[in-house]
Amino acid sequence: MNTSINAPLGTEQEGLNGVATSQAYKFPTASGIDSVYYFIESNAEYKEFFHFSIFSVVEHEKEKNGYIPKDSLSIKISDIEFVYLGKDQGFYFFADRAGAFRVGFKDPDTNTGVHDIRVQLQGIGIYALGLTFLADYINGTILKEISKPNYYITRADLNIFCQYDLGSIIEPEHIVTRKRKFARIIGKKNTYETLYVGKPPAMLRVYNKALEIDHDSMKSYFLKRYLEPLGINAMEPFWNFEFECHRDFLKQYKISTLEDLLSNAEALFHKMMKQIRLVDITSLTHKDLEADRLYKAPTHPLWDYLDQAYTFNAIDQKTIPLERIVYAPKELNANDFIEEFRTLTQKYAEHSVIVNYEEVRDVLHESRLWLTKKAQKAIKPFIPIKLQAGDRKYLLTRNHTAVPILPKSLEHINDDELKMMHDLLTKALHQELTCQDQDIALIVKHTKEINAEKERRRAGQKELELWRQ
Asked: Are residues 162 and 264 in the same domain?
């Protein structure tokens, strides 16, 4: 984590039109990452370790007592003692005695699509040892014998502690974001203790950190020791401003490993600050306010200050702005449907759901997925193939019948050419009528145009003869 230390904001600086400039905000901040979850790839030695050091120990204890009392079961990994916490989502979770981190182990023969080792770095460990040192210690020492050096991020909380009442400035009604409809507020009527904007896989959380601190806990002790040199007094009111980012969101920006996260922490924070904005509504017109066009307002100076204050100097940061990956839509086929349909039926079979066959058939018929090849061919859009023979151009029907292409205007061609086109269309119609699946729409259309032009010329000829009389 890093900091920006300045004198507290004075009331005389709370600037123009009731909104201070970003230069006026000078409260102390401490920024970084205060929570990290990631998977580690296991190696060949892991399977034996899991069955003898984890599974056998835990399950034997369960059989002996029927349950495992809290803090009663411990194991050692690399001479470090771990306390058993319980089983969740197939993982047996343990924590070190100091509470610096948690680690989960799963059976390598089950749910093979998920890595076998899961790590969660706790705040107390990050505050006491530093995030990169703690991660290197876990990966390179404690779990080195049972893992490969491949670390895949699943969640990270990027935060900035502030010796300032953020709740007095950050009003939910003045936040502009696509996530705004998910805003949730916890607190009193005229203020709040916690503000949530968005929901996983990406959300903002702003809350009064001072209210949740247990000053007698070990975590608070290390937090105070971390904050005090950076100008923040944990005994006074202070707030936490953090973005909670999960794997599905991170991978949109090519952040998949622990190294990707740490080297792009600043860029990720800045990206989130643009996706969720606090705006200065004092610049908006009355009409814009009534129409809720907040997006027209400039970013609030406090938001700019927080954005500029965030730094993460534990490792070198990449300076290239993050850009969302745009995936080309996959072209689905019948095999894809069958595979997904099979997965869906298995899912509902596990829940003993009974489905009526007739209803399933009706859904397929309504969707046009359950059609004969002839029916599919009839409704599938067909684009005629262009063909040129000599000076004349044609379009080929589904049955490869050549239909002459008409000029944009038939007025400028002579009678012989008009008759030639009519004869070609008649020939094409006869050829198409001999086919089983006839494709005559284009022929009929062109024939109608030819006949209309011939009729127009006949009418003109009659009028000319009348004038001659």
From this structure: yes
Q: Are residues 136 and 210 in the same domain?
A: yes
CA distance 366 to 332: 19
Instruction: Supply the pTM of this predicted model.
Output: 0.67
* 129/226 Cα distance (integer angstroms): 10
Q: How far apart are CA 165 and CA 239, in angstroms?
A: 6
Q: What is the pLDDT of residue 228?
A: 93
What would the pLDDT profile of 304-320 be if each residue is shown by its tens digit?
999 999 999 888 999 88
**Residue 417 sits in the same domain as residue 440:** yes
Same domain, 395 and 361: no
The model's pLDDT over 173-194, given as tens digits with 9 standing for 90+, comes to: 899 987 655 566 777 656 789 9
User: 340 and 277 in one domain?
Assistant: no
Q: Which residue has the tokens 């990966």?
A: 139
Cross-strand partners of 204: 197, 243
- Domain, as residue range, for 460: 385-468
Using DSSP bridges, classify how beta strands 80-88 and 184-186 pair: parallel, antiparallel or unpaired. Answer: unpaired
pLDDT in tens, 410-446: 888 888 888 888 899 999 888 888 887 788 888 888 8
- 327 within domain boundaries: no
Are 347 and 302 in the same domain? no
Report the 10 Å Cβ neighbour count for 250.
23
Residue 369 Cα to chain centre, angstroms: 30
Cis peptide before 69 (omega within 30 of 0): no
- Supply φ then ψ for residue 455, to 5 degrees: -65, -40
**Total tally of structural domains belonging to the chain:** 3
